[in-house]
Design a protein that fits this description.
This protein is mostly helical. About 55% of the residues lie in helices and about 10% in strands.
């Protein structure tokens, strides 16, 4: 089975943070070389990414930035097949439609509240809010992420 995966870093691990840093730097190169260099040099992407995303918005040429970012994703992402990593761009060059679509029909009633499966339990309501607080305190998520989850939970429609 073909699976789209993050590229491996020099340590052999797949890192979404490293990919994000590289893609943002590549996208910024289309409009602001100084901002691109700053993004590429960011040591703590998990905490420092926001200023680089702001630079993406402020860079000016949105279409060029978006095109460069998308090209970077195609160049850097991989498709894992039989233990080999193949660049995503090569897969699309070989077959413009390598990934199929499927329709999954559900037969359960739809959820009417936000629930988050976590470590064998389903978080909702107060238990979800307490866990969000713990994640923010531990630095697992940003406070703004917790706020958005709370907003979704408060507005299930």
């Amino acid at each position: 089975m073909n699976e789209v995966v993050f590229p491996r870093g020099t340590d052999g691990r797949r890192s979404s943070s490293e990919l994000g840093r590289q893609v943002v730097a590549d996208a910024l190169r289309a409009a602001d070389l100084a901002a691109a260099g700053a993004a590429a040099a960011e040591r703590d992407w998990r905490k420092g990414y926001l200023r680089h995303f702001r630079a993406l918005v402020e860079a000016g040429d949105g279409y060029a930035v978006a095109a460069a970012g998308l090209a970077s994703v195609h160049e850097r992402m991989r498709v894992e097949h039989d233990g080999d990593d193949v660049p995503l761009a090569e897969v699309f060059d070989a077959d413009p439609a390598p990934l199929g679509t499927v329709t999954v029909a559900g037969d359960e009633k739809p959820e009417r509240e936000l629930t988050v499966p976590y470590r064998g339990e389903t978080l909702r309501g107060d238990s979800l809010h307490r866990q969000l607080d713990r994640w923010v305190a531990a630095g697992t998520i940003e406070a703004s992420c917790a706020e958005m989850v709370r907003e979704v939970a408060a507005n299930p429609g």
